[in-house]
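sry for the spam today, last one i promise. struct tokens for design, 444 residues
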């Protein structure tokens, strides 16, 4: 399955996955206290060392201190880090969607070029038959050498188009190979005939799906939630951080200047705190956090509006492709086939000139190639639409795309469930799928 293989092996997806794992490791770091401080002081010269009349000479002093942020600060740091991890999670989902979309677009390019190659090969055989027919009529004296030369030129034209199509096919295979992280020389192929996917009936449903499931929008919401925690953290800086500790002084009567010193060790407690007195700096920190939260909120609105615009454009494009495809299949193709059949029969009996016969052949070739191109363009338009919406539209119901190598994440990191819809298509569950190196492979 091309899609599953790409989700497992694509290096862009793997980079996003490990970035998510890295961001998740920041949560325990942000919720932990700073390392305690240990300070040792040695007084080697009794004449310059602390001397106590009751306890004597202190050659060694040890202090251990620990800083404690103001109440609730560590919790807010952890919540901000969690929202940052959510942002990385949605970036991971966006990377998956982007790879799936690229795989589908490359696959549809392969499908079109494969089909175009087959159509051109069939037309070359038909053109070669026309060469034979023109020669037979030349022998019978019912036509001129010009018809034979025109037929041979048609064969040459088709062969030149085959060269171009095969070059584009190789490029499409290389594009798919990049997403699969395999050699560009791999023989990646598409199915010979593909069921055309259905276009969603209502654009309003797509708006709701995009708002609920597009990872970039969900990532913006996580960033807004993170900014709200950052505002609260900035307000916490108005309160002091508490430093508590213990001090131990080793006492001795040796080298003591007091005759009554008993050498008992000295033990004390330390309590300290910083003084948040620079109000201008603290207010600037709060205002900065608030401004960043507003900026991300406006960024979410802008991205949502952009999403709706792209959904509308891609929906109209897919709908137009489908309507034109149906028109070509039901009207243009049957008429072009009838025209060529009638022109061939009339030319055999001498009731039609060769120019009309060639025109009929070219019209049929153009229609068949256009149908294949419309099928490919429709598939690519739907793939781009799925990328923007954030779900596979031809699932029952539409399903979010996840990789088999997705790291375990808590329920709090799961995307919002989208509404249900109906539809089918070449990427729906249950359709033909094979491994990447099979010649009849489907992109799923």
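last one done:
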């Amino acid at each position: 399955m091309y899609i599953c293989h790409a989700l497992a092996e694509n290096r862009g997806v793997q980079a996003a996955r490990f970035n998510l794992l890295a961001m998740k490791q920041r949560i325990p770091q942000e919720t932990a206290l700073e390392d305690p401080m240990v300070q040792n002081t040695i007084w080697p010269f009794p004449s310059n060392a602390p001397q106590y009349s009751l306890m004597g000479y202190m050659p060694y002093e040890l202090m251990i201190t620990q800083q404690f942020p103001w109440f609730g600060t560590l919790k807010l740091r952890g919540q901000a880090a969690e929202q940052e991890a959510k942002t990385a999670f949605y970036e991971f989902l966006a990377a998956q969607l982007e790879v799936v979309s690229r795989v589908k677009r490359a696959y549809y390019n392969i499908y079109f070029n494969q089909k175009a190659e087959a159509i051109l090969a069939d037309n070359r055989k038909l053109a070669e038959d026309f060469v034979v027919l023109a020669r037979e009529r030349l022998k019978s004296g019912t036509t001129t050498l010009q018809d034979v030369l025109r037929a041979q030129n048609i064969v040459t034209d088709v062969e030149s188009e085959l060269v171009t199509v095969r070059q584009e096919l190789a490029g499409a295979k290389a594009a798919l190979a990049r997403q699969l992280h395999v050699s560009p020389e791999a023989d990646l192929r598409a199915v010979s005939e593909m069921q055309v996917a259905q276009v969603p009936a209502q654009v309003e449903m797509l708006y709701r799906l995009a708002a609920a499931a597009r990872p970039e929008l969900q990532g913006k919401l996580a960033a807004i939630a993170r900014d709200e925690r950052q505002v609260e953290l900035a307000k916490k800086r108005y309160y002091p951080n508490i430093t508590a500790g213990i001090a131990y002084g080793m006492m001795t009567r040796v080298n003591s200047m007091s005759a009554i010193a008993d050498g008992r060790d000295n033990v004390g407690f330390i309590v300290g705190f910083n003084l948040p007195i620079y109000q201008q700096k603290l207010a600037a920190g709060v205002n900065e956090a608030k401004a960043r939260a507003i900026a991300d909120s406006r960024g979410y609105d802008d991205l949502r509006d952009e999403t709706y615009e792209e959904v509308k454009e891609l929906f109209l494009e897919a709908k137009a492709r489908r309507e034109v495809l149906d028109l070509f299949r039901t009207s243009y193709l049957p008429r072009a086939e009838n025209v060529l059949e009638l022109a061939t029969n009339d030319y055999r009996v001498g009731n039609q000139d060769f120019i009309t016969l060639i025109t009929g052949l070219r019209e049929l070739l153009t229609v068949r190639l256009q149908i294949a191109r419309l099928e490919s363009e429709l598939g690519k338009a739907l793939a781009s639409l799925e990328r923007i919406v954030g779900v596979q539209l031809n699932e029952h119901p539409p399903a979010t795309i996840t990789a088999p190598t997705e790291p375990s994440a808590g329920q709090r990191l799961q995307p919002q469930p989208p509404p249900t819809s109906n539809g089918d298509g070449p990427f729906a569950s249950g359709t033909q799928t094979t491994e990447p190196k099979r010649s009849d492979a489907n992109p799923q």
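Residues 402-442 have pLDDT under 50 and may be disordered. ok im logging off now
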